[in-house]
Amino acid sequence: MEHSARTRVLRIGTALAFTVSAAITGLIGAPAASANEPPITIGFITSNTGLAASSYVNSQWGAQARIDAQNAIGGVHGHKLKLVVEDDGSSFSNNLTVAQDLVQSKGAFGVIEDTSFTAGSYRYLQQQGVPVTGAAIDGPEWNLPPNTNMFSVSGVLGPFSDGVQYTNTDSARFLKSLGITKMAVLAFNIPSAITAAKALVQTDKSLGIQNCYLNTSIPFGDSDFTAVALQIKSAGCNGVEGLFLLSSDIALSKAVKDAGVNAKMVWPTAYDQNLVDQPSALQSMKDEYTSVTVDTTVHPSPAAKLMLARLKKYTPFTGSIPSINIIYGYAAADLMITGLEMAGAHPTRQAFIKNLRKDDKWTAGGLFSQPDILSNFGTPAMVPKTACETFLEITSTGYAQYKNGKPICGDRVKIASS
After folding, report:
1. What is the 3-state secondary structure (H, E, C) of the chain?
2. For residue 288, what pLDDT is reported?
3. Percent with pLDDT over 70 in the chain
Protein backbone atom coordinates (compact mmCIF):
# COMPACT_ATOMS: atom_id res chain seq x y z
CA MET A 1 0.00 0.00 0.00
CA GLU A 2 0.99 3.59 -0.50
CA HIS A 3 3.59 5.29 1.69
CA SER A 4 1.45 8.25 2.76
CA ALA A 5 -1.34 6.11 4.15
CA ARG A 6 1.14 4.27 6.36
CA THR A 7 2.62 7.47 7.73
CA ARG A 8 -0.81 8.92 8.54
CA VAL A 9 -2.30 6.11 10.39
CA LEU A 10 -1.97 6.73 14.06
CA ARG A 11 -1.57 5.18 16.11
CA ILE A 12 -0.55 3.45 17.14
CA GLY A 13 5.49 -16.66 23.42
CA THR A 14 7.83 -17.74 25.79
CA ALA A 15 11.58 -17.37 25.45
CA LEU A 16 14.05 -20.19 24.92
CA ALA A 17 16.78 -19.55 27.48
CA PHE A 18 20.13 -18.49 26.06
CA THR A 19 23.49 -19.48 27.47
CA VAL A 20 25.09 -16.82 29.64
CA SER A 21 27.44 -15.77 26.87
CA ALA A 22 24.66 -15.50 24.27
CA ALA A 23 22.49 -13.48 26.65
CA ILE A 24 25.33 -11.02 27.07
CA THR A 25 26.23 -10.76 23.42
CA GLY A 26 22.76 -10.99 21.87
CA LEU A 27 24.32 -13.36 19.28
CA ILE A 28 27.11 -10.89 18.56
CA GLY A 29 29.94 -12.96 17.16
CA ALA A 30 27.99 -16.22 17.56
CA PRO A 31 29.38 -19.35 15.87
CA ALA A 32 27.79 -20.94 12.81
CA ALA A 33 24.23 -22.15 13.31
CA SER A 34 23.69 -25.82 14.04
CA ALA A 35 20.80 -28.04 15.02
CA ASN A 36 21.81 -27.77 18.68
CA GLU A 37 21.91 -23.99 18.84
CA PRO A 38 19.09 -21.85 20.23
CA PRO A 39 17.16 -19.75 17.76
CA ILE A 40 17.58 -16.03 17.35
CA THR A 41 15.18 -14.45 19.79
CA ILE A 42 13.07 -11.51 18.62
CA GLY A 43 11.17 -9.51 21.21
CA PHE A 44 7.72 -8.10 20.47
CA ILE A 45 6.21 -5.31 22.55
CA THR A 46 2.56 -4.37 22.18
CA SER A 47 -0.42 -3.16 24.23
CA ASN A 48 -2.71 -6.13 24.79
CA THR A 49 -4.17 -4.52 27.90
CA GLY A 50 -4.86 -0.94 29.01
CA LEU A 51 -6.32 2.02 27.12
CA ALA A 52 -4.81 1.13 23.74
CA ALA A 53 -5.77 -2.56 23.81
CA SER A 54 -8.74 -2.15 21.48
CA SER A 55 -6.37 -1.33 18.63
CA TYR A 56 -3.36 -3.48 19.58
CA VAL A 57 -4.86 -6.70 20.95
CA ASN A 58 -3.50 -9.71 19.04
CA SER A 59 -1.12 -7.55 17.00
CA GLN A 60 1.54 -10.19 17.70
CA TRP A 61 -0.32 -12.49 15.31
CA GLY A 62 1.12 -10.54 12.39
CA ALA A 63 4.69 -11.05 13.58
CA GLN A 64 4.03 -14.69 14.47
CA ALA A 65 2.62 -15.43 11.01
CA ARG A 66 5.64 -13.93 9.25
CA ILE A 67 8.18 -15.59 11.55
CA ASP A 68 6.50 -19.01 11.40
CA ALA A 69 6.46 -18.79 7.61
CA GLN A 70 10.20 -18.01 7.66
CA ASN A 71 10.92 -20.87 10.04
CA ALA A 72 9.02 -23.21 7.71
CA ILE A 73 11.73 -22.64 5.09
CA GLY A 74 14.60 -23.02 7.54
CA GLY A 75 14.76 -19.63 9.24
CA VAL A 76 17.50 -17.13 8.38
CA HIS A 77 20.91 -18.52 7.41
CA GLY A 78 20.04 -21.70 9.29
CA HIS A 79 18.92 -19.91 12.47
CA LYS A 80 15.32 -20.52 13.49
CA LEU A 81 13.56 -17.46 14.94
CA LYS A 82 11.79 -17.31 18.31
CA LEU A 83 9.19 -14.62 19.03
CA VAL A 84 8.80 -13.52 22.65
CA VAL A 85 5.76 -11.32 23.27
CA GLU A 86 5.51 -8.73 26.05
CA ASP A 87 2.53 -6.54 26.99
CA ASP A 88 3.35 -2.96 28.04
CA GLY A 89 -0.17 -2.43 29.37
CA SER A 90 -0.46 0.86 27.45
CA SER A 91 2.13 2.41 29.75
CA PHE A 92 5.40 4.22 29.02
CA SER A 93 7.01 2.95 32.21
CA ASN A 94 5.93 -0.63 31.54
CA ASN A 95 7.22 -0.31 27.99
CA LEU A 96 10.71 0.30 29.38
CA THR A 97 10.39 -2.53 31.91
CA VAL A 98 9.44 -5.14 29.33
CA ALA A 99 12.13 -3.94 26.91
CA GLN A 100 14.74 -4.41 29.62
CA ASP A 101 13.36 -7.86 30.38
CA LEU A 102 13.53 -8.88 26.72
CA VAL A 103 17.14 -7.79 26.34
CA GLN A 104 18.59 -8.62 29.75
CA SER A 105 16.67 -11.75 30.72
CA LYS A 106 15.43 -13.26 27.46
CA GLY A 107 18.38 -12.60 25.19
CA ALA A 108 16.51 -10.73 22.45
CA PHE A 109 18.71 -9.89 19.47
CA GLY A 110 16.19 -7.31 18.26
CA VAL A 111 12.85 -5.87 19.33
CA ILE A 112 9.66 -5.17 17.41
CA GLU A 113 7.70 -2.24 18.86
CA ASP A 114 4.02 -2.36 17.87
CA THR A 115 2.70 0.10 20.42
CA SER A 116 1.99 3.78 20.95
CA PHE A 117 4.36 3.78 23.93
CA THR A 118 7.76 3.21 22.32
CA ALA A 119 8.92 6.50 23.83
CA GLY A 120 9.28 4.64 27.10
CA SER A 121 12.07 2.34 25.93
CA TYR A 122 13.73 3.76 22.83
CA ARG A 123 16.61 5.42 24.70
CA TYR A 124 17.46 2.18 26.50
CA LEU A 125 17.32 0.15 23.29
CA GLN A 126 19.51 2.67 21.46
CA GLN A 127 22.07 2.66 24.26
CA GLN A 128 22.21 -1.14 24.10
CA GLY A 129 22.57 -1.09 20.31
CA VAL A 130 19.46 -3.23 19.85
CA PRO A 131 17.84 -3.20 16.38
CA VAL A 132 14.22 -2.03 16.55
CA THR A 133 11.57 -2.38 13.88
CA GLY A 134 8.00 -1.14 14.09
CA ALA A 135 5.78 1.76 13.08
CA ALA A 136 6.56 5.43 13.75
CA ILE A 137 3.15 6.08 15.29
CA ASP A 138 4.06 7.45 18.70
CA GLY A 139 6.75 10.12 18.31
CA PRO A 140 9.72 11.48 16.36
CA GLU A 141 12.34 9.17 17.85
CA TRP A 142 12.17 6.97 14.74
CA ASN A 143 13.84 9.61 12.59
CA LEU A 144 16.08 11.53 14.99
CA PRO A 145 19.74 10.89 15.88
CA PRO A 146 21.21 8.99 17.57
CA ASN A 147 18.49 6.37 16.96
CA THR A 148 19.90 4.81 13.79
CA ASN A 149 18.92 1.43 15.27
CA MET A 150 15.21 2.20 14.69
CA PHE A 151 13.53 1.23 11.41
CA SER A 152 9.93 2.21 10.74
CA VAL A 153 7.69 0.16 8.44
CA SER A 154 5.29 3.11 8.13
CA GLY A 155 7.82 5.59 6.82
CA VAL A 156 8.61 8.88 8.55
CA LEU A 157 7.72 12.51 7.98
CA GLY A 158 9.96 14.21 10.54
CA PRO A 159 10.79 16.42 12.26
CA PHE A 160 14.35 15.70 11.24
CA SER A 161 17.69 16.99 12.45
CA ASP A 162 16.95 20.34 10.85
CA GLY A 163 13.72 20.59 12.87
CA VAL A 164 11.56 20.56 9.75
CA GLN A 165 8.39 18.46 9.49
CA TYR A 166 6.99 17.25 6.18
CA THR A 167 3.70 15.92 4.93
CA ASN A 168 1.95 15.17 1.67
CA THR A 169 -1.00 16.83 -0.04
CA ASP A 170 -2.80 13.63 -1.04
CA SER A 171 -5.15 13.67 1.96
CA ALA A 172 -6.15 17.27 1.31
CA ARG A 173 -6.81 16.42 -2.33
CA PHE A 174 -9.13 13.64 -1.16
CA LEU A 175 -11.04 15.98 1.14
CA LYS A 176 -11.40 18.49 -1.66
CA SER A 177 -12.80 15.77 -3.92
CA LEU A 178 -15.52 15.18 -1.29
CA GLY A 179 -16.54 18.83 -1.46
CA ILE A 180 -15.38 19.66 2.06
CA THR A 181 -14.73 23.36 2.63
CA LYS A 182 -14.65 23.64 6.44
CA MET A 183 -12.79 20.82 8.17
CA ALA A 184 -12.74 19.80 11.82
CA VAL A 185 -9.57 17.92 12.84
CA LEU A 186 -9.26 16.07 16.13
CA ALA A 187 -6.42 14.00 17.59
CA PHE A 188 -5.31 12.25 20.74
CA ASN A 189 -2.92 14.25 22.89
CA ILE A 190 0.16 12.21 21.95
CA PRO A 191 3.07 13.80 20.01
CA SER A 192 2.66 11.96 16.71
CA ALA A 193 -1.09 12.59 16.55
CA ILE A 194 -0.72 16.27 17.45
CA THR A 195 1.95 16.75 14.79
CA ALA A 196 -0.13 14.93 12.18
CA ALA A 197 -3.24 16.98 13.00
CA LYS A 198 -1.40 20.28 12.63
CA ALA A 199 0.07 19.08 9.36
CA LEU A 200 -3.40 18.21 8.07
CA VAL A 201 -4.64 21.70 8.89
CA GLN A 202 -1.80 23.32 6.95
CA THR A 203 -2.12 21.13 3.87
CA ASP A 204 -5.91 21.53 3.85
CA LYS A 205 -5.45 25.29 3.93
CA SER A 206 -3.04 25.15 0.97
CA LEU A 207 -5.88 23.71 -1.12
CA GLY A 208 -8.50 26.15 0.10
CA ILE A 209 -10.05 24.06 2.88
CA GLN A 210 -10.64 26.13 6.01
CA ASN A 211 -10.00 24.71 9.46
CA CYS A 212 -13.18 25.31 11.44
CA TYR A 213 -12.20 23.34 14.55
CA LEU A 214 -8.91 21.88 15.85
CA ASN A 215 -8.67 19.82 19.02
CA THR A 216 -5.43 17.99 19.84
CA SER A 217 -6.13 17.56 23.56
CA ILE A 218 -8.41 14.50 23.37
CA PRO A 219 -7.39 12.02 26.10
CA PHE A 220 -6.01 8.79 24.71
CA GLY A 221 -8.86 6.31 24.22
CA ASP A 222 -11.61 8.82 24.99
CA SER A 223 -15.17 7.93 23.97
CA ASP A 224 -17.25 10.87 25.23
CA PHE A 225 -17.60 13.41 22.43
CA THR A 226 -20.96 15.03 23.21
CA ALA A 227 -19.54 18.47 23.98
CA VAL A 228 -17.02 18.25 21.13
CA ALA A 229 -19.75 17.44 18.61
CA LEU A 230 -21.73 20.50 19.68
CA GLN A 231 -18.65 22.68 19.18
CA ILE A 232 -18.17 21.22 15.70
CA LYS A 233 -21.80 22.02 14.93
CA SER A 234 -21.45 25.57 16.23
CA ALA A 235 -18.39 26.10 14.03
CA GLY A 236 -20.34 25.17 10.91
CA CYS A 237 -17.99 22.38 9.84
CA ASN A 238 -18.93 20.20 6.88
CA GLY A 239 -16.03 17.76 7.30
CA VAL A 240 -14.62 15.83 10.27
CA GLU A 241 -11.41 13.79 10.61
CA GLY A 242 -10.28 12.03 13.76
CA LEU A 243 -6.77 10.68 14.35
CA PHE A 244 -7.93 8.06 16.81
CA LEU A 245 -8.28 4.41 17.67
CA LEU A 246 -11.28 2.66 16.10
CA SER A 247 -13.32 2.79 19.32
CA SER A 248 -13.00 6.57 19.40
CA ASP A 249 -13.80 6.80 15.68
CA ILE A 250 -17.11 5.05 16.34
CA ALA A 251 -17.90 7.22 19.35
CA LEU A 252 -17.19 10.54 17.61
CA SER A 253 -19.12 9.49 14.51
CA LYS A 254 -22.18 8.78 16.64
CA ALA A 255 -21.84 12.01 18.63
CA VAL A 256 -21.58 14.11 15.46
CA LYS A 257 -24.72 12.51 14.03
CA ASP A 258 -26.60 12.84 17.33
CA ALA A 259 -25.74 16.55 17.32
CA GLY A 260 -27.36 16.94 13.92
CA VAL A 261 -24.15 17.81 12.07
CA ASN A 262 -24.27 17.20 8.32
CA ALA A 263 -20.63 16.48 7.57
CA LYS A 264 -18.42 14.13 5.59
CA MET A 265 -16.36 12.07 8.02
CA VAL A 266 -12.94 10.47 7.48
CA TRP A 267 -11.32 7.89 9.79
CA PRO A 268 -7.78 6.72 8.91
CA THR A 269 -8.11 3.70 11.24
CA ALA A 270 -11.61 2.49 10.29
CA TYR A 271 -10.60 -0.26 7.84
CA ASP A 272 -10.82 -2.91 10.51
CA GLN A 273 -12.41 -6.33 11.06
CA ASN A 274 -13.59 -5.08 14.46
CA LEU A 275 -15.86 -2.60 12.70
CA VAL A 276 -17.25 -5.24 10.33
CA ASP A 277 -17.97 -7.42 13.35
CA GLN A 278 -20.13 -4.67 14.89
CA PRO A 279 -23.13 -4.47 12.51
CA SER A 280 -24.77 -1.56 14.34
CA ALA A 281 -21.57 0.53 14.29
CA LEU A 282 -20.94 -0.39 10.65
CA GLN A 283 -24.45 0.69 9.69
CA SER A 284 -24.05 3.91 11.67
CA MET A 285 -20.81 4.77 9.83
CA LYS A 286 -22.24 4.01 6.40
CA ASP A 287 -21.16 6.53 3.74
CA GLU A 288 -18.15 7.64 5.76
CA TYR A 289 -14.56 7.11 4.59
CA THR A 290 -11.29 5.49 5.55
CA SER A 291 -7.83 5.14 4.09
CA VAL A 292 -6.42 1.65 3.63
CA THR A 293 -2.88 0.55 4.42
CA VAL A 294 -3.22 -2.95 2.97
CA ASP A 295 -6.40 -3.93 1.14
CA THR A 296 -7.29 -7.57 1.89
CA THR A 297 -10.95 -7.57 0.83
CA VAL A 298 -11.82 -5.14 -1.97
CA HIS A 299 -8.92 -5.53 -4.41
CA PRO A 300 -6.10 -7.42 -2.61
CA SER A 301 -2.62 -7.80 -4.11
CA PRO A 302 -0.84 -11.19 -4.22
CA ALA A 303 1.28 -10.10 -1.22
CA ALA A 304 -1.86 -9.18 0.73
CA LYS A 305 -3.39 -12.58 -0.07
CA LEU A 306 -0.19 -14.27 1.09
CA MET A 307 -0.21 -12.36 4.38
CA LEU A 308 -3.85 -13.30 4.97
CA ALA A 309 -3.14 -16.96 4.18
CA ARG A 310 -0.20 -17.00 6.60
CA LEU A 311 -2.29 -15.39 9.35
CA LYS A 312 -4.93 -18.07 8.97
CA LYS A 313 -2.36 -20.89 8.83
CA TYR A 314 -0.15 -19.91 11.74
CA THR A 315 -2.41 -17.91 14.11
CA PRO A 316 -6.00 -17.93 15.45
CA PHE A 317 -6.93 -15.09 13.05
CA THR A 318 -10.14 -15.98 11.19
CA GLY A 319 -11.33 -12.68 9.72
CA SER A 320 -10.81 -10.95 6.40
CA ILE A 321 -9.31 -7.64 7.53
CA PRO A 322 -6.27 -7.72 9.82
CA SER A 323 -6.09 -4.69 12.07
CA ILE A 324 -3.55 -2.02 11.15
CA ASN A 325 -1.37 -3.21 14.03
CA ILE A 326 -1.51 -6.85 12.96
CA ILE A 327 -0.31 -5.59 9.57
CA TYR A 328 2.41 -3.49 11.19
CA GLY A 329 3.43 -6.52 13.28
CA TYR A 330 3.71 -8.63 10.13
CA ALA A 331 5.65 -5.96 8.26
CA ALA A 332 7.95 -5.26 11.22
CA ALA A 333 8.77 -8.97 11.45
CA ASP A 334 9.47 -9.01 7.72
CA LEU A 335 11.80 -6.04 8.12
CA MET A 336 13.53 -7.77 11.05
CA ILE A 337 14.02 -10.85 8.87
CA THR A 338 15.39 -8.66 6.07
CA GLY A 339 17.90 -7.10 8.47
CA LEU A 340 19.00 -10.52 9.70
CA GLU A 341 19.43 -11.73 6.13
CA MET A 342 21.60 -8.71 5.36
CA ALA A 343 23.64 -9.23 8.54
CA GLY A 344 24.98 -12.57 7.27
CA ALA A 345 25.35 -16.09 8.62
CA HIS A 346 26.96 -14.81 11.83
CA PRO A 347 24.62 -11.87 12.55
CA THR A 348 25.68 -9.05 14.79
CA ARG A 349 23.56 -6.14 15.84
CA GLN A 350 26.09 -3.74 14.34
CA ALA A 351 25.99 -5.47 10.94
CA PHE A 352 22.18 -5.55 11.03
CA ILE A 353 21.93 -1.80 11.61
CA LYS A 354 24.72 -0.83 9.22
CA ASN A 355 23.46 -2.88 6.29
CA LEU A 356 19.72 -2.33 6.67
CA ARG A 357 20.28 1.42 6.92
CA LYS A 358 21.39 1.34 3.28
CA ASP A 359 18.19 -0.27 2.02
CA ASP A 360 15.71 1.84 0.03
CA LYS A 361 13.90 -1.02 -1.69
CA TRP A 362 12.07 -2.82 1.12
CA THR A 363 8.32 -3.28 0.52
CA ALA A 364 7.56 -6.23 2.83
CA GLY A 365 7.60 -8.57 -0.15
CA GLY A 366 5.31 -6.35 -2.20
CA LEU A 367 2.82 -5.74 0.60
CA PHE A 368 3.47 -2.00 0.21
CA SER A 369 3.49 -0.59 -3.31
CA GLN A 370 5.94 2.18 -2.42
CA PRO A 371 9.22 1.31 -0.66
CA ASP A 372 10.41 2.80 2.59
CA ILE A 373 13.52 4.96 2.39
CA LEU A 374 15.77 3.67 5.18
CA SER A 375 18.93 5.51 4.17
CA ASN A 376 19.79 9.18 4.80
CA PHE A 377 18.72 8.81 8.42
CA GLY A 378 17.65 11.99 10.16
CA THR A 379 17.24 13.96 6.92
CA PRO A 380 14.30 14.95 4.68
CA ALA A 381 15.68 12.59 2.02
CA MET A 382 13.83 9.84 3.92
CA VAL A 383 10.54 11.32 2.69
CA PRO A 384 9.44 10.48 -0.87
CA LYS A 385 8.77 13.46 -3.13
CA THR A 386 5.42 12.02 -4.17
CA ALA A 387 3.12 9.70 -2.24
CA CYS A 388 -0.27 8.21 -2.96
CA GLU A 389 -3.16 6.94 -0.89
CA THR A 390 -6.18 4.75 -1.59
CA PHE A 391 -9.51 5.46 0.08
CA LEU A 392 -12.55 3.30 0.75
CA GLU A 393 -16.17 4.16 1.46
CA ILE A 394 -17.77 2.41 4.41
CA THR A 395 -20.94 0.53 3.44
CA SER A 396 -23.59 -1.26 5.49
CA THR A 397 -21.84 -4.58 4.76
CA GLY A 398 -18.17 -3.56 4.63
CA TYR A 399 -16.22 -1.37 2.23
CA ALA A 400 -16.26 -0.23 -1.38
CA GLN A 401 -13.63 1.44 -3.54
CA TYR A 402 -13.67 5.22 -3.79
CA LYS A 403 -13.24 6.48 -7.36
CA ASN A 404 -12.84 2.87 -8.58
CA GLY A 405 -9.80 2.41 -6.36
CA LYS A 406 -7.67 4.97 -8.14
CA PRO A 407 -4.98 6.26 -5.73
CA ILE A 408 -4.97 9.96 -4.90
CA CYS A 409 -1.44 11.35 -5.04
CA GLY A 410 0.17 14.48 -3.67
CA ASP A 411 3.48 16.24 -3.31
CA ARG A 412 5.88 16.42 -0.36
CA VAL A 413 5.55 19.79 1.40
CA LYS A 414 7.20 21.41 4.40
CA ILE A 415 5.14 22.13 7.48
CA ALA A 416 5.62 25.51 9.09
CA SER A 417 6.65 25.51 12.74
CA SER A 418 3.76 26.14 15.13
Report:
1. CCHHHHHHCCCCCCCCCCCHHHHHHCCCCCCCCCCCCCCEEEEEEECCCCCCHHHHCCCHHHHHHHHHHHHCCCCECCECEEEEEEECCCCHHHHHHHHHHHHHHCCCCEEEEECCCHHHCHHHHHHCCCCEEECCCCCHHHHCCCCCCEEECCCCCCCCCCCCEEEECHHHHHHHHCCCCEEEEEEECCHHHHHHHHHHHHHHHHCCCEEEEEEEEECCCCCCCHHHHHHHHHCCCCEEEEECCHHHHHHHHHHHHHCCCCCEEECCCCCCHHHHCCHHHHHHCCCCEEECCCCCCCCCCHHHHHHHHHHHHHCCCCCCCCCHHHHHHHHHHHHHHHHHHHHCCCCCHHHHHHHHCCCCCCCCCCCCCCCCCCCCCCCHHHCCCEEEECEEEECCCCEEECHHHCCEEEEEEEECCC
2. 97
3. 90
Q: Is the pLDDT of residue 278 over 90?
A: yes
Q: The domain at 3-158+299-383 falls in which architecture?
A: 3-Layer(aba) Sandwich (3.40)
Q: What is the pTM of this model?
A: 0.82
Asked if CATH classification 3.40.50.2300 holds for the domain at 165-297+387-415, the reply, yes or no, is: yes
Domain residues of the chain, as ranges? 3-158+299-383, 165-297+387-415
